[in-house]
Design goal:
Blueprint (H helix, E strand, L loop, with lengths): L5 H23 L6 H52 L27 H4 L7 H6 L12 H7 L28 H5 L13 E4 L22 H6 L39 E5 L34 E2 L2 E5 L2 E4 L3 E2 L13 E2 L4 E6 L4 E5 L4 H8 L11
Parallel strand pairs: 1-3, 6-7
Antiparallel strand pairs: 1-2, 2-8, 4-5, 8-9
Length: 382
Amino acid sequence: MKRFGSRQLRSFRHLCALSSNAITECKRRKPAFTLVELLVVIAIIGILVQLLLPAVQAARERARKVDCANHIRQLSIASLLHVDAHGYFPAGGWSGNFVGDPNRGYGRNQPGGWPFSVLSYVGESTARDSAFGSSLTAAVLSPSLADLYQTTPTIFHCPSRRVAKLYPFVSSGSWRWAPRVAKGVLTLPGTTKIDYAANSGDAIHHAANTLGGENMWTPESYQALVSGPKKWTDTSDPNSIFFQSGVIFYRSEMRPAQISDGLSNTYLIGEKFMDPNGYEDINAINGMGIMGDNESAWVGYEWDNHRVAWQPNSLSGAFDYQPQQDQIGVGGPAVWAFGSAHPGSLNMSFCDGSVRAVSYDIERKVHRWLANRLDGETASLE
């Protein structure tokens, strides 16, 4: 065996020490990015976020649209339950001059509109039943009536537009109890709104739309129904400007058998067009655009809860009420038309309870046919 000399041994030990120090130093060192590498990574992440954000937003909107369709489906099912209970679809009520009255039952005698009539069929019967017996004409509304008028069903709202809560009240003087609110006798924090509207057809005359000074008759008060002559407008004559070709309208009691075009071929309830500036506060809108959402969900036959697909003989010309996505600054005739906050299409239910997407590019005549219950025209959305 070869022996190392003292000098060689010292050199070997020194080499081992150097190797040990090198290994220890390598262990101490941790991998790290340079500043340039870090900036490149940040830039790549930013680009990926920009690429993915539209897809994420689109996915969220699709989910909101599905939720919206489910809300309309529930309202449609509630309407069919109303048919089972009473034999006809919910009535449209009298006008914006009146709100729903729990003491006046259902059908033509109910001054409130269809949202009020379906309350008992969407899990809100307690609010309506609790207010039964309270007078709507009292000097001050009872707490039970105030609670009823401040009920905010989630299914009344499209999640792409707004949430279920009370919204600012526009004291237009049209509610019979609005003056008492305005004078501070009763302070309400807000009012219930609704993003959905019933199909009133392709009517020449609809809701509060006045043609040549003529309008659908409503009494000045409950007392006038007793002391004065009743002049209820006939909406059944096809030759009258007041003829209603839809399903839910002024004092309607539409039975399924009267929808001769077929339940699956006739609109029932759909989304209504709105100006986005008025989502949270309708007072933010100027001009005609305010008219489509200035009332409570509980009023009778009004633009707020009814829409049409056509108005052939308007004083301003033959308006076609093509549905469209919500837009800022748009007034009539869109304020009386169907529409939504969703891109591409809106949700619309049919009288059989089905819910389908209606494209904004739908043929105008097809849209009109689907709104008219008895024109003999049937069409497919395919």
